[in-house]
Amino acid sequence: MKNIIFAEIVKQALKERAAGYHVAKFESDCVKISTSTLNVELYKHHNVIAVLELAKIKAFKLTDIDCDLTVKGNALPLSDREFFEGVKEDNKIIGIQHIPAGFINAKWLKMTGKPNEVRYYLKGMQFKRENNKLQIVGSDGHQLIMNTAIGETGPDFSALIPSEALLILSKIKTSCLMTVTESHAKFTGPDWTIEARLIDHRYPDFSKVFQTSINGDIDVNRKLLIQAIKDVTPFLPPKLQGVMLTVTDKTLDFVHHGGTLASVLLIHSSGTKASEGIDVGYLLNALECYKDEKIMLSFRDSLIQINRDTFQTSIVMGMRL
Question: What are phi and psi of 164, to 5 degrees?
Fold first, then answer.
């Protein structure tokens, strides 16, 4: 178990501990922490140092933990963990999926719902395996990220994983096995286990956004485009960072109130001139999810799509200006 995992868990646990919830339990060989969405176990024979460091935290003094956990909201109590062993028929396993080391990208989470998002079902990402292809999708209604790089033979399943679990997984550099039941997901690595209660809601069907007409494609340098966004941002209102992205013969222009704030040279263009109002903050979030030097921007009706022909694609919804 990497110490970084517990660093993130402890941040969340301390907040809930301050609110009056018991969130940790110390046993002879194990520390168990349960927050409102996650359960984590760390065994002493795997990482003695991490256990000892956690025990030093004043909020987790042994004298405060003398009974079974009671946790906020609908987190999984320790006494209910046996469902992963098939004890509870209503929690039978519906899917098993291998997740490669370092695959979960923390920057994807910038494109999902924020902690204060009223639509709680957007505060996570959908893991959906269909026809032996895993589709991971996250969105906040204004921006969307979809990755279909993982393929694995097995039955179809769908699970809405909370962002808190994914944030921790993004910081772990080892592969893991994801086991999904109808209400929970368990991630098991070489010496660590994370359990999360699934978000209980049907995830929106975003497939229609990929069916809109394409008005034009351009290829640009990703780093130059990111720098252009950073250059124009100080000149835009903080709450509405809208510009018109306009394709000319040779450049992609950032136009605001009739004036061009910045331009990026095109590497390639389909030859069709196009324009779309866009929030540059959302576009920046999408661009930072990639490492490619060259990216494709597709101007669709009322939105822009990034790298539409690859395993990972993003959508930034248009806006009226």
Answer: -60, -40
